[in-house]
Every structure is written in structure tokens, then in C-alpha cells.
Amino acid sequence: MKKFALAMLLLFSCSAAQADLKLYVFDCGHLAFADISNFGLSNDETEVRELFVPCYLIEHEQGRLLWDAGLPLDSVGPREQGATSWYENSILDQLQTIGLTPADIRFASFSHFHYDHVGAANAFKDSTILIQETELVAAFEHPEENPAFRPPLYNELENSQRIVLDGDHDVFGDGSVMIVSAPGHTPGHQVLSLQLENFGPLILSGDLYHFEATRRLRRTPDFNTDAQQTLESMDKVEALIRETGATFWIEHNLELANSLNLAPAYYD
């Protein structure tokens, strides 16, 4: 069944009509660590100690999709000396620079519900939420089982219109924006596959990996909910990358982020 699902996903990804997509990348904060050993790495296996926290907006002729919502809005402000996290301009203010408010966002979806990915989630309560059923149960029924879930950041989504997923999902029905189920980091973790006309196919990692080293060494963080499931998701996504020739962005990769064109620039 898994091989069939992957084959269907590859078919969608390779044959998708070229929709008029735009992808905006926003700076939604930074995280700094003195010790990265709980990510499944020893401190001498990578020199990286700072992670980028992105938010993304995808524009499609059928509507807009917000992917991930950054650090909590109450952390927005100037970087303080010695801070281990900082967030200088909120996603809400950054959306305004391209003339948008949360009311303009048709869909909101999150790679998973850790606090650094749903910081502004409540602002999008009037959007339709796309969420894996397993993540829905974990985030709303058993959040105490995962300390990185902070319900006050997303509790207003409980009454939002939503589409509950059980695996991969074609957001707009044309193969151009595909949610790819990749559980293990959390029960309903997912990545996003895009078919951009000029840039080409692109996959956004969520937290399948946090560092280039975890991808290269095939490591899983100590705080993942299921290490074996994570490895299976790595295999699935790596196969998708090979078969489609997609560019792969590790979302937390600061070096990558520093090379990107942030909003109001966009990729198409």
C-alpha cells in the first residue's frame, strides 16, 4: 500500500499541470543552541548552533495556503543580548508588506504542531485547516504527551473549518501543491511538495531534518515520537526527491535561508 501511495504521489508530482504558483518565504524567527546533542548528533558532528524559523505562503489561482506559522507572536521584538530565540517582525506584519491579512488566506497547514511552527496559528482560525488525523488527536486530545506542543498557541483552531487528512493530499486538485505525510517527528508530521514553473519542483522539509548533518548521517532527534517511523518517512521523501528531481529545502537551515530571497520577493 505504501509503495502504491508513493507511486501515485510521484505520478501527481511529475505530471502536474503548471499552475501559476508563487512562493513567499518569511523570516519567522531564530533559535540558538549551546548543545545540539538531543537532535541525534554529537556536538562535534556539526558546527551549526543557530536555526532559522520560516513561514511560507503559496499563492494559487484557487486561493492561498499558509505553511507553518513561526515562533509565538508574544516573542516578537528586538533581539536581546544572550537570547536563545528571537523574532523581529511578526508574520502578520510581514503579510501586510504584500498587502495581505489572515482573512486573505484560504488554507492554513503546519508541518507539525511544535511551538516554533504554530506561533501565529490562532490568527488563521478563519482559514480552512489541513491537518493529519494523527496530529489532530495528538495536538488537541493529548498535548501533554509532547512538551513542545503549546495549546494556547493553536487552541482557537479547534472550532475552525478543517480538512482532516489520512496521508498525502492534493491541496488544489491539480498536483501543483501536495501535502506529503511524513510521520515520526510528531504523529502527523508532513512535508510540502510544490511544482513551480520557473524554479522547478521544490520540497519543504518541515522537521524531517533540522541540520544537513542529520540528513547526511540519517539521525533522528531524541524527542521524535517514533524514530523508526521517522526513518521510513526519510526513505519516502528521499525517493520522491530522486524521482522528481526536486530541490529540497531543510526549513531550519540558516545557511540556506541566508541565500534565499525573502518576501516581498517570491519564487514562481
- Assess the beta-strand content as a share of residues: 15-25%
Order of the strands making up the biggest sheet: 4-1-2-3-5-6-7
Mean pLDDT: 94
Query: In the CATH hierarchy, what is the superfamily?
Result: Ribonuclease Z/Hydroxyacylglutathione hydrolase-like
| CATH hierarchy: architecture | 4-Layer Sandwich
CATH class: Alpha Beta
Counting helices, strands and paired strands, the structural category is: alpha/beta
Roughly what percent helix?
10-25%
What do you see in this structure?
With 268 residues, this protein is α/β, with parallel strands linked by helices. It has one domain: Ribonuclease Z/Hydroxyacylglutathione hydrolase-like (Metallo-beta-lactamase, Chain A), CATH 3.60.15.10. The chain is built from six helices and twelve strands. A seven-stranded mixed β-sheet has the order 4-1-2-3-5-6-7. A five-stranded mixed β-sheet has the order 8-9-10-11-12, with helices on one face. A hairpin with an 8-residue loop joins β9 and β10. The radius of gyration is 17 Å and the shape is globular.
Keywords:
alpha/beta; Metallo-beta-lactamase, Chain A; 268 residues; seven-stranded mixed sheet
Task: Give the topology.
Layout: H1 2-15, E1 22-32, E2 50-60, E3 63-69, E4 85-86, H2 91-96, E5 107-109, E6 128-132, H3 133-140, E7 162-165, E8 169-170, E9 177-181, E10 190-196, E11 200-204, H4 212-217, H5 227-244, E12 247-249, H6 254-259
Parallel strand pairs: 3-5, 5-6, 6-7, 11-12
Antiparallel strand pairs: 1-2, 1-4, 2-3, 8-9, 9-10, 10-11
Helix pairs in contact: 1-5
